[in-house]
Amino acid sequence: MESSAKKKSPVKKIFSIIGVVLIAVVVVGIFVFLWKKSQPKEVIYEIVEVVEGDIENATVATGKVSPRDEVLIKPQIAGIIETVLKEAGDFVKAGEVIATIQVVPESAQLSGAESQLNIAKINLNLSSADYNRQKQLFDKGVIAKEEMDKAEADYKKAQEDAENAKDNLDIIRTGVSKKTAKYSNTQIRSTIDGMILDIPVKVGNSVIQSNNFNEGTTIATVANMSDMIFIGKVDETEVGRIHTGMPIKLSIGAIDNKKFDASLEYVAPKGVEENGAILFEIKAAAQITDTISIRAGYSANAQIIVANAKGVLTVPESTVSFSNDSAFVYILKEETPKQVFDKQFIKVGLSNGINIEVKSGLTKGQKIRGNEVDEKAPKPEQPK
């Protein structure tokens, strides 16, 4: 009876067997998982073809487009703006009047000029009376011709002094005399043909003349808009690679999808420090057609072509590996069922940061290893 009680029931035996089997399955599964994880993962690479193309190596300078000739029109006389005949945006010819100035005379100068005129008139009256007396005596044969000539000369000199004194008074009062009306300093004229960019003064503003001690008040800014230049700056790391005469492609911010040719004509011999960097000023003559309206001060970027190679073999620079002084790629040997590559040393040339020139080691159409394919990345949709 006791031996039979110690015997396990059939149900318990089944559960024991199931437990052992489950434990064995778990242990085997763990070993299989660890074994698979330890196996090297197959990497799939993009396949890139060697193609023929052009490569340009360029540096970019930021700046603006400005007219080459920009002239500040300043008065040669002090006074008050009386009229403004033009406005910004108008085209003017050299010699065309832009504004007029009303002269405000100083009291001392005006008083002195009036006094000089009065003295000149008194001298003229005396010379006139003396001339008439001498003429009467000469007609009667009382005096010699030399005395008559002297009296006539003194009279003409007195007339000239009186006219000069009157002109001087007119100039002080109005800024212009009868003799010099054509060359009046009160009329502010353009000195070049071009467009008026700015007129910073208004009617009633006081202005002072330009002289050795003062720049004077600017009446207008006139520029020749048919001759534009690019003014920009390049970093010291790039300035050694550029020189005058280099071709440039200009991109103007206000004009989309349009590039303009230019030629580098100036590189500053001295740099200027800005925000911790040394920058050198450059200037380039821009070739802009008359059909395109360019305003002074447009921001622009200049792409300076430092070097170029046309019709050469190229590959993406990311496909090239470098070791010491050597460069190499991996050529596709087999693609299925598994990608197989052979290492190939090559000689490279010019690079633009994206593609690089292959001088030797590859031929057009060869397939090489590209970047690793990310299997998790979404695949592009196929066109319908």
From TrEMBL:
One of its GO terms (molecular function) is efflux transmembrane transporter activity. Residues 113-169 form the CzcB-like alpha-helical hairpin domain. Pfam families: BSH_CzcB (PF25973), HH_CzcB (PF25893). Residues 72-211 form the CzcB-like barrel-sandwich hybrid domain. The chain crosses the membrane at residues 14-35. GO terms for cellular component: efflux pump complex. Keywords: Coiled coil, Membrane, Transmembrane, Transmembrane helix. InterPro entries: BSH_CzcB-like, HH_CzcB-like, RND_pump_MFP. Residues 141-175 form a coiled coil. The keyword Coiled coil applies. It comes from the Bacteria. Belongs to the membrane fusion protein (MFP) (TC 8.A.1) family. This is HlyD family secretion protein.
